[in-house]
């Protein structure tokens, strides 16, 4: 089913594919400063004969970037001109570290460590960490649990997966957890020191710089200790029945983020409660004023308030030398390049404000028509990208269409407040079918504390000649009884699936479509669909039924404006 994977994973629904789109990369990338087109795009495992100097130039400071490909992000790597040098073909990817990155393909269900030419040096079905001092932690799964070991930059397993948890190497040493002990090891696996841990059956969420952030299994309260097992003197602001998560985080540089005590102790408090910074020795650096904290990189972490995202230094002071960004997200500083992921838009820019690369939610419909994305942000938890049609020669029709699109996307969102504790992420897709503009409104609403959110998938067929938005009934002859006819077709399809033992539908849930039932279409077919829970479980997504126009030809109003516009005969 369309978007099923995203719905099961509860990810944000992004722009769906439009069959009239052209080059995908051209539509979603705003390559601001790239003045020359690039043809030397590298794909994974490519063997090329470039000179070493050319390779070094091409791969210098590769940056993780993505394009919007149908419902999903596809990751690759760009150079500092903003041009892709490793193609955006991966479903997940990490930043390069010491010349290597980890990429993941869902088609192969495989993680790959690639070098800066895209060549794979190591593959695994389980996750792999970043390289530090030539070593990276890799996962394996045996006897019902995840265990960890180390590979080197040749892709060889140096230390086998025998540890419950392993940290990165620093100064030639790393820390591992096994058999209720924290051990300090060197790169040969030799144990330099070991310390018994009195806390049994723990789940480690962070293991870095000799610190362990953990919770006891069955308990959501996060605690921290050093590698000798000594508990750190950090505040514990939640009770033993706390049901949220992330109330304590290690940010690097001996600094921890501690969540403020809250009257609510569930998942909602995780989103709405501020954090303060503390040193590992218990010294409080800041008040409880920061949200969405990231780890430190090059001496700075990022944080948000109600309107902006900004950098803070290791004293917890807001930087007055680095830029602030309007909106909510995270920032990472590496040298003189800022990676900004704000309100669903990825931007790379230099510290002096030069933009290298930026994604956009614009949708190119035809050579002349584009749905440009405009942002509406009523509060910190909501971001709505709504479409504005450009390139239509009839300006009055374009104005009418855009006024209607604004109303569709914004009217029910404009009064949202942060106190509503509702995360809203709206976007769109679109395509042109002859004289019909089919706009797809996509979204995901999540009420803080709920088990999951609710996706949005609405279609609006708009006449590019008149600006009229059509309804399902506009396709059919008056008094055609289209509701009953379409309902019988759908009921038969459900019955057929049930006979094959393939039915995903609730028993006896479907009786009839509504006169204004959800639908979309192409030139040859009508698609009737239902929202989650209407006739099937949430995991089924939006159940959809394809009905060819030929099979219902006798009830279609072929002299109507909708049909004529759909087929370009108006």
UniProtKB/TrEMBL annotation:
Keywords per UniProt: Signal
Gene3D superfamilies according to UniProt: Fervidobacterium nodosum Rt17-B1 like, Heat-shock cognate protein, ATPase
DUF3298 domain sequence ranges: 474-549
InterPro entries named in the record: DUF3298, PdaC/RsiV-like_sf, WG_beta_rep
Pfam families given in the database record: DUF3298, WG_beta_rep
Signal peptide region: 1-21
PANTHER family reported in the protein's UniProt record: DUF3298 DOMAIN-CONTAINING PROTEIN, GLR2918 PROTEIN
Protein name in the entry: WG containing repeat-containing protein
Source organism phylogeny: Bacteria, Bacillati, Bacillota, Clostridia, Lachnospirales
